[in-house]
Amino acid sequence: MMIALGMIISYLIGSIPTAYIFGKLLKGIDIRQHGSGNVGATNVFRVLGKGPGILVLILDILKGVVAVSVVPDLLGTPDILPRVLMALTVVCGHNWTCFLQFKGGKGIATTLGVLIGLTIKIAVIRPVLLGTVLTWVVCFLLTGFVSLSSIVAATALPIYMVLTSQPLQIVVLGIIFCIFVVFRHKSNIKRLLSGQESKVPFPFRKKAKEPAETL
User: How far is Cα 12 from Cα 15, in angstroms, rounded to an integer?
Assistant: First the structure.
């Protein structure tokens, strides 16, 4: 019962549509009708600016951290499996929020929060977090594509888990997260293949486009 309750709480935490809320509070707009229409931090950066974008990014990360490092302990379910189940449901909440007709963000920030939360409680996962973040950063610096970097990092996630001999539940979670990220980035993949995906504008590039939608 406590695990089921934790999963419900985690889903509701993930479902909090921070980007939508900030759009309403700061400009009285529906963020879904502006920019890319995505309910995530990247679109907040685009529509509302850097300050709100950074704050939404932090809050979306915190959703994952709280769901796996705080909720299980409060409910007396500190084992790996309950944390994995709550990690899964908090990302599902972000991606498919019940407050916006089950349409949400792309889950990158909340997934990162989940990994951070897991490393707080399970030290052996720390190399996985480090490797995944470094993979994202290297791919981003080489290509300038946020979407491609997210897809590559997500694909590397379960591989790092296997290479570092993580528990089976953690590996399965990594595989599911990888599938989620690829599925949520279908439109980005199409644009990447057609050469129409946007890049982050680096100062040293002569031509630059707006950031790709990922979060």
Answer: 5
Question: How is residue 210 annotated by DSSP?
Answer: P
Look up the pTM and report it. 0.89
Cβ–Cβ under 8 Å, residues 152 and 67: no
Q: How many CB atoms lie within 10 A of CB 142?
A: 11
**3-state SS assignment for residue 101:** coil
Q: Over its length of 215 residues, how does the chain's per-residue pLDDT go in tens digits?
A: 899 999 999 999 999 999 999 999 999 999 989 887 888 888 898 899 989 999 999 999 999 999 999 999 999 999 999 999 999 999 999 999 999 999 899 999 999 999 999 999 998 999 999 999 999 999 999 998 888 999 999 999 999 999 999 999 999 999 999 999 999 999 889 999 998 887 876 654 554 455 555 56
